[in-house]
Amino acid sequence: MIRKARAIVTDTAPLTLEAPAREALFLVDIWADRAGVEQRLAAVLPAPCRSRTEGLDRLIWWEPSRWLIRTPLAGRSARHVELTAAVRRDGAVTEVSGGLYRLRVKGSAWRALLMIGGVFDAESPAFAPGSVAGTLIHHLAVRLDVIDEETLDVYIPPSYAAELLRHWDRAIARLNVLAAV
Fold first, then answer.
1. CA distances for 59 relative to 23, 48, 106, 131, 135, angstroms
2. Could you tell me if 118 and 176 lie in one domain?
3. pLDDT tens profile 76-100
4. What is the pLDDT of residue 1?
């Protein structure tokens, strides 16, 4: 269904779409005592629309009172136990590893790619490393996590991943035509 990686040359630089190694994904909901949960986690959860890497985990603000934690697959069970112990009765931990597909976009042209079929100003300098946004691209709900200046992770339900890749293949072809003019 989805190829491992594809490299595309646009007017600005090579752009690569790839499916990174699978990792465990946990949604952490906190209903009460966020400070206590953070203390037990030994981590401060990102502010709204922010993300960061801490140790082996990627901490991503998902929505009010909810964070996505991406962690190595090998330690999935142990991490689930740790997260559940930290949250206690102040929230809930739900593993969603099978419910989200992560696609990595690499290259300086990722902002141009997002602008085709999107309703989001990806060219804003405020959308910088450590930024998170939920938006629509080609009528599909996506969550965007800016890793660094040339790397973007895109989270999407698995059933839409192939359609998003088809859209981006067409969008990249359009970028290439514009670059040739």
1. 13, 11, 20, 11, 19
2. yes
3. 999 999 999 999 999 999 999 999 9
4. 45
- Point out which residues pair with 57 in neighbouring strands: 54
Supply the pLDDT for residue 130.
98
Residue 55 gets the label, from left (phi > 0), alpha (psi -120 to 50) or beta, of left
181-to-39, 61, 158, 174, 178 alpha-carbon distances in Å = 56, 41, 36, 11, 5
| Contacts of range 110-113, beta carbons closer than 8 Å, 24 or more positions apart | 110/15, 110/150, 110/151, 110/152, 112/10, 112/12, 112/175, 113/10, 113/15, 113/168, 113/171, 113/172, 113/175
User: Nearest 10 degrees: CA dihedral of 166, 19, 126, 122?
Assistant: -10
Compute CA distances 53 → 49, 61, 120, whole Å: 14, 12, 24
CA 180 to chain centre: 31
Only one residue has tokens 């809930």, namely: 92
User: pLDDT value at position 10?
Assistant: 47
**In residues, how long is the chain?**
181
104, 174: one domain: yes
Tell me the CATH number at 60. Answer: 3.30.70.1520
Q: Global pTM?
A: 0.88
Distance spanning both ends of the chain, measured CA to CA: 33
136 and 64 in a single domain? The answer is no
Name residue, tokens 């839409």: 160
